[in-house]
Amino acid sequence: MSGGAGVTAVLSMLEYLVENSTRDVVFLRGVRSNKRHPFAEHVRELASRRPGIRSVVLYEQVSPEDVQGVHYDAVGRTTAEAIQPYVPRDAEFYYCGPSGFMASAEIALDALHVPFERRHSEAFAPDPTFAAGSAKPTPATIAPARIDAG
Fold this sequence. Notes:
The chain has helices at about 5-20, 40-45, 80-85, 100-110, and strands at about 1-5, 25-30, 55-60, 75, 95, 120-125. It has about 150 residues and is an alpha/beta fold. It is globular.
């Protein structure tokens, strides 16, 4: 599962599984809209390469040009109700995305009673242990840019 830019982390997993596995895969993505749907064609092409791979897309917003079953599969966010029809009960879950998506995914997996040992995640967000103000540059480390007129 991925949300937003989290697709960049899990896309390589899909590419690997297409070429090196016979495992069934549900590649589920939460996307705001067709206008913010990176790698849509690439994922559809990968899913068409072999049986057992299914791409599922949830759009938060649908436009009149969007066709259900082509551009997206369902409308809404990543909730238990939204993902339950697509995922097997005994699935391993690998997911990545921004903090809001990750929180929604955790709530959904809790509601579906997915054990923690079948959850594998990585947030696509800044490291919360990094203190933005702790590494203040000193005047010696900041030099104005020089443009040679010559």
